[in-house]
Design brief:
The chain is α/β, with parallel strands linked by helices. The protein is built from 11 helices and 14 strands. The longest helix is centred in the first third of the chain and has 21 residues. The chain binds serine.
Length: about 325
Amino acid sequence: MRKILITGACGQIGSELVPYLAKKYGKSNVISSDVSAGCENGSDFEFLDLDVTDFEAIENAIDEHDVDTVYHLAAILSATGEKKPFKAFDVNLVGTNNILRAGIEKGLSRVVIPSTIGVFGPETPRENVPVVTVTRPRTMYGITKVTTEMLGEYYFEKFDLDVRGLRFPGIMSYVREPTAGTTDYSVQMFYHAVRGEPYKCFLRADAYLPMMYMPDAVSSLVKLAEADLKNLTRHTDYNVASYSFSPEELYNEIRKEVPGLEVSYEPDYRQEIAETWPASLDTTLAERDWGFRPEYDLERTVKDMIQNLKVKLA
Ligand code: SER
């Protein structure tokens, strides 16, 4: 079997996708890469120091490791993207174009790229948003990601490169704490609950957003990657989400497990980002075309997060 390369492997999703792929395809077939000199995965898996803005380095990595498939996760998310817009442009757009171009030149069989609810904007409808709708984002993250969706589609049509992607909502997880997004509040609230600390939320109590739990996010990405191409009516922009909630609703759910949790609200610039995103997504195309079916509802997510964080933070 030829190898799978994961970019951005040290991030929130990469930290769980890498072991998932290793379990499925064998450890020796999975290569993690990131810009840091190494990450938690690095000790367990073959690790490359790879900057996706360096086209030649990508080509060399593909050649040297006989790479066949790339899961391209390297990205600067919405909150950091507003602090460092030029870096977000370079990593998200130049970096992704490098991966796609290398995909053609090296004859990769597949490139998988997560997209995001960040592609939507204030003119997008709020509820049950379909895949094809108004996508006029206001953040650098959203602008680069919606362009990435279109680039992937272009490379598919023009060069026959099998590019696949889905739009993730906010993702909750306990392995690697997210630090760069607008939906990170959800994970922070769990950490504070388990540590017995009060939490100051940077979104408003009623900021309603689509969300999901990491096990469903990882299995969905791999399910899409493995789907029969002839069943796919879209390529780079499937909507996925498990549920929607507001910070207040999450607080109420966590309090069933940790009754003493205290949350106050002090919205910052991330509230402005959240206000441009929809409250809920229509996921029927993902369900129909490749069997998207999340296993965790909110109650099960909360119980599992707390159970695992209690072990992690003990
Ligand atoms: N979790 C991401 C963010 O908040 C959304 O894709 O930026």
